[in-house]
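Hi there,

I know you've been waiting on this one. I reran it after we fixed the sequence typo, so this is the corrected version. Both the input and the resulting structure follow.
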Amino acid sequence: MKFDGKVALITGASRGIGRGIALELCKRGADVVLVGRDRAALDETAQLCAGERPGAVAHVAIADVVDQAAIEAVVAETMARFGRVDFAIANAGQSIDALLLRLKADVIDKMLDINLKSAFYLCGAVAKPMMKQRSGAIVLVSSIVGLTGNAGQAAYAASKAGLLALAKSLAKELGSRNIRVNAVAPGFIETAMTSNLPDAAKEALKAQIEHSALGRVGTPKDVGGVVAFLCSEAAAYVTGQTIVVDGGMVP
């Protein structure tokens, strides 16, 4: 799984899973474009990438993933700078928890915008250059709750479930141009976002983890390795799939 000469674009690369994916792809030889709104955090990711591999190129692109024009501009900038885009990772996401009877319309809209519509924008922007290249890999970062659901996370779970259908549909649309589209569904991964979960939710998840096959919390590196596989030639015949990365938490 060597990515020398390849270019990867990762949204939500400032921290957590996005940073873990960027480091993994960079370590394996890819130049990376780090997309997000927090320049300081993205610069930190870029510095960590440089530490992973001498000569690594980690370009920071400031953009709001819910702004379609901004994402299209980032892809255009990537093409102008590197001349290609081989991997696109739609990782940007956010969780706002609320029970149905307390769920506000603006929260539903925000979950759909950040978690689902942003992936549509990224896929639409990278599809054109990938089609011209007649090659590419797209990975959508969903969540285990997109498969299982979770009380108090209806909006988040629904938005993440949408990514699974998007991956299957785009795999059929783009496969003839040698573009593969897959999804990963992480379980409980130790990140800033999961650290902000309500205590009750944390305790429930910890109980599930204790009875899981591996019995430990996941790390961004755990997810990064699976994303690297899906981008690699080792997964050349894998498309339209969802890979669960939860340590055996869900049977």
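Quick highlight: The chain is about 50% helix and 15% strand.

Best,
R. S.
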